[in-house]
Amino acid sequence: MAITTTHDVVDLIPVDTGLWRVCDTRFEEGRSRRIIGYLDHRGEGYEMLWMRPRPGVIRRYDTFDDAVRAVRIRLEHTA
Question: What is the DSSP string of the chain?
């Protein structure tokens, strides 16, 4: 079951407990650009492993909402 944010562009798909694959719904399943990264609940916060625009960049966020907001902002500036 996917969790879709209010903007319907960001799709969070549970991979494991506290781990989500973050996808851009503007791209079809199977396209590499669909996967934005992976969001992992780590102790008191969340770590986002970004797969685009630069693979391997890790950012830490205090809350789940902060992480999703950062994804939305990034997607507003990329396609």
Answer: --EE-TTSSEEEEEEETTEEEEEETTS-TT-GGGEEEEEEEETTEEEEEE-SSSTTEEEEESSHHHHHHHHHHHHHT--
2-55: pLDDT as tens digits: 544 445 788 999 999 999 999 998 888 888 789 999 999 999 999 999 998 788
Task: Give residue 53's identity as a one-letter amino acid code.
Answer: P
The tokens for 10 are: 């960001």
Residues facing 63 on adjacent strands: none
> How many whole angstroms separate alpha carbon 43 and alpha carbon 10?
23
Q: Cβ of 71: how many Cβ atoms within 10 Å?
A: 24
Q: Give the residue carrying structure tokens 């960001």.
A: 10
CA atoms in the 13 A half-sphere facing the CB of 69? 7
